[in-house]
Amino acid sequence: MILSRRKLIGIGAAGAGGLLLGGCDQLNASAGFRDTLKGATGLNQRVHRLLVGDSLAREFTEADMSPVFKANGSLRVADPAYRAHLGQQFAQWALRVDGLVKQKLMLPLTALKSLPQRTQITRHDCVEGWSAIGKWQGPQLGQILQAAGLLPNARFAVFHCADVLEGAPYYESIDLVEAFHPQTILAWRMNDQPLTEAHGAPIRLRVERQLGYKQAKYIMRIELRESLAGLYGGGGGHWEDARGYQWYAGI
Ligand SMILES: Nc1nc2c(c(=O)[nH]1)N[C@H]1C(S)=C(S)[C@@H](COP(=O)(O)O)O[C@H]1N2
Ligand SMILES: [Mo]
Fold first, then answer.
1. Nearest 5°: CA angle at 197, between 81 and 93?
2. Which ranges of 103-213 does DSSP label H, i.e. alpha helix?
3. Ligand 1 atom closest to 130 (CA)
4. Domains identified in the chain and CATH numbers
5. Ligand 1, pocket residues at CB < 6 Å
6. Which residue, judged by its Cα, is nearest atom 24 of ligand 1?
7. What is the pTM (predicted TM-score) of this model?
8. What's the mean pLDDT in 181-200?
9. In angstroms, what is the span from residue 10 Cα to ligand 2's centroid?
10. Which pLDDT band holds residue 12 (cuts at 50, 70, 90)?
11. Ion ligand 2 residues within 5 Å by Cβ
12. Residues 197, 86: contact at Cβ < 8 Å?
């Protein structure tokens, strides 16, 4: 992404406040600070974009891969339809792409596997205080969105997941800059094996410039929307709704 002059001016002098918020996840625990974060998200996002531009997340080598990659959040999905698909290795399953698209898509796992693939070895950073380096493979999300064709008012991609975590359905969302970023993939393979249930089978998002909670597992449906308002808690994601985590989870 090339930053326009207008965007640069728009960030202005207040930008420093947003910069400070970037790495302070420990502070999310305090309610007052959460409100500050919510208010600052837009600003933080713009400042972060200024810094990262169209940069790539760091990629690592095979030698850097973590011997153990912890699974976190949901490790199992209770939904009976999901369990039936899992039992058939997702042979009858299809990813639904809908909302503000010209052409709704139903993409079987075989179709996702036969698209051009990207493989990347990256570091996953969870706000709970652990990181792991793993290898991910899958088609770029951008290709799939291009195939569906976006309507002009589409601004966000929402990932609807099969699991319910702490009483609320898991979901996440990203903007189109992140959706078309080359390292944003729908991974069906992790460390050279098909994704296990604990890590998000059949597909999970890898959006490598963002924190762990954005890496949605068990994706059943991708919905293109103009706004995140009116969707679940309105925060654009499970943790954003439940705990006030920042929507723009830039590392
Ligand atoms: N559907 C779904 N996606 C999810 C979660 C979850 O509970 N459900 N947890 C998130 C969090 S907080 C992290 S750190 C990562 C963990 O991914 P892993 O289990 O592959 O380590 O998935 C993220 N995506
Ligand atoms: Mo996490």
1. 40
2. 109-114, 141-148, 176-179
3. 14
4. 1-55 (no CATH), 59-243 (3.90.420.10)
5. 70-74, 126, 161, 163, 165, 170, 198-200, 212-213, 215-218
6. 216
7. 0.83
8. 98
9. 32
10. very low
11. 126, 212-213
12. yes
